[in-house]
Each structure stands twice: as C-alpha cells, then as structure tokens.
Amino acid sequence: MADNAPNKKSFKAGHVIFRQGDIAQSCFLVSAGELDLSRADSDGVDKKFAKVIKGEIVGEMSMIGDTPRTATATVLQDVELVEISRDDFEAQLGRLNPFMQRLIRLIVQRLRDTTTTLTRG
Fold it and tell me: Which residues, at least 6 apart from 33, have a Cβ–Cβ distance to it below 8 Å?
C-alpha cells in the first residue's frame, strides 16, 4: 500500500459492508471477525455462498474487473477491516508484469461467471 496510514474500520454483526451492484472504491482485509457473502438470485432471494475470515480480502473482484460488486458482504461476527483504496490497489496491481495482470483479470472474470451461474434461482 502507499505511505498512507491504514484505514481501519470496525463493524458490528449484521452491518452490510457493501451490496451487490455497488460501485467499488475500495476492498478490505479482514483483521478480525467474519463476513458472509451472498448474492440475490433471479427471484431476489439472497443466497449465502461464502464466508470471509481473518486474513482474507473481500471486494477485490470489483477492483480487478472494474465492475459492480457481485455480492453483498454482511458482518457475521463483529469485524475489524483494513480498507484498501482503489488507488493503492491499482498501484500494487500495476507493479505486476502485463502477463500476470491479464491472467489475474481472466481468473476473476471466470470466478465472477461461476458465482453468477451457481447462485441463479
């Protein structure tokens, strides 16, 4: 990350960090607690499909693909997050060689497609 101090945030269980369809301006490193990821199916019913725990990053797919959020992230257990801004994220991604950048974008697109297919109603 850049020389900026980390942007730490804390949220209680039940808080929504971001919603499916939101435009991403940051992603988050989970430093404590847990999040649930869910996605609305074609009937608008939320389907939980993943849990994000300490040490994992959430919200990165929208940053890499520059697309709206594919899921809603809700706090399952009180959580502490380190927010990573789009500028800091893109600076790190930009340090990779072009082949690796393309490979990461391809993997994210395939994961996005799979998530969408698996969570349809």
Answer: 54, 75, 76, 77, 78, 79, 80
